[in-house]
Amino acid sequence: MKTVVNVTSHIHYYPNFYTNEEASSLFDILLQETPWQQDYLTIFGKRYLQPRLTSWYALNQKTYSYSGITMQPHPFTPVLSQIAEKIACSSKTNFNSCLMNLYRDGKDSNGWHADNEPELGINPVIASLSLGAERFFKLKHHNDAALQHKILLEHGSLLLMTGDTQHQWLHTLAKTAKPIGPRINLTFRVIL
Ligand SMILES: O=C(O)CCC(=O)C(=O)O
Ligand SMILES: [Fe+2]
């Protein structure tokens, strides 16, 4: 485990949270069984097709809203419950929801943002599992754009963001021109 940022924001990276074989098997199952959807985002009044596919899972039937989208929840599947349980052991957090992202290739991305929707509470714990193609996750400080970090999110790795990370930092999953395959990201959250 490597501590990347540690002031009042805590960002921890666990490579090999799952072995290569376990991660590949989870990738195959999730790619197949997930009802992936592509939504339109509304940013400053303009509509854009989201540059990735997503799916929203929640234990408490809560919807999730961001950038003009309200996502309807699917119930946790057995595989998702199993992953949530393993992550709960490492993070000491019982997550009740999961936003899944499918980046089909290097052209798919996730723009600069913070996970700061009101339903996540003040200092949310966010646990992010990466499966499939490796992609760079970048962070930049809200008040000082020169303060930046770049983390390669490997197959089977877990990234944990806690403390006031979502107040201090923005994050993005940038596009890449490299010819790469798909990546699945599972972002576990607690919806209040
Ligand atoms: O794909 C990733 O690693 C980041 C996903 C993310 O930031 C989000 O869904 O809020
Ligand atoms: Fe995010």
TrEMBL record:
<dbReference type="GO" id="GO:0032451">
    <property type="term" value="F:demethylase activity"/>
</dbReference>
<keyword id="KW-0560">Oxidoreductase</keyword>
<protein>
    <submittedName>
        <fullName>DNA-n1-methyladenine dioxygenase</fullName>
    </submittedName>
</protein>
<keyword id="KW-0234">DNA repair</keyword>
<dbReference type="GO" id="GO:0051213">
    <property type="term" value="F:dioxygenase activity"/>
</dbReference>
<dbReference type="Pfam" id="PF13532">
    <property type="entry name" value="2OG-FeII_Oxy_2"/>
</dbReference>
<dbReference type="GO" id="GO:0016787">
    <property type="term" value="F:hydrolase activity"/>
</dbReference>
<keyword id="KW-0479">Metal-binding</keyword>
<dbReference type="InterPro" id="IPR037151">
    <property type="entry name" value="AlkB-like_sf"/>
</dbReference>
<keyword id="KW-0460">Magnesium</keyword>
<dbReference type="GO" id="GO:0140097">
    <property type="term" value="F:catalytic activity, acting on DNA"/>
</dbReference>
<dbReference type="GO" id="GO:0006307">
    <property type="term" value="P:DNA alkylation repair"/>
</dbReference>
<dbReference type="GO" id="GO:0016705">
    <property type="term" value="F:oxidoreductase activity, acting on paired donors, with incorporation or reduction of molecular oxygen"/>
</dbReference>
<dbReference type="GO" id="GO:0046872">
    <property type="term" value="F:metal ion binding"/>
</dbReference>
<dbReference type="InterPro" id="IPR005123">
    <property type="entry name" value="Oxoglu/Fe-dep_dioxygenase_dom"/>
</dbReference>
<feature type="domain" description="Fe2OG dioxygenase">
    <location>
        <begin position="94"/>
        <end position="192"/>
    </location>
</feature>
<dbReference type="InterPro" id="IPR027450">
    <property type="entry name" value="AlkB-like"/>
</dbReference>
<dbReference type="InterPro" id="IPR032854">
    <property type="entry name" value="ALKBH3"/>
</dbReference>
<keyword id="KW-0227">DNA damage</keyword>
<keyword id="KW-0223">Dioxygenase</keyword>
<keyword id="KW-0408">Iron</keyword>
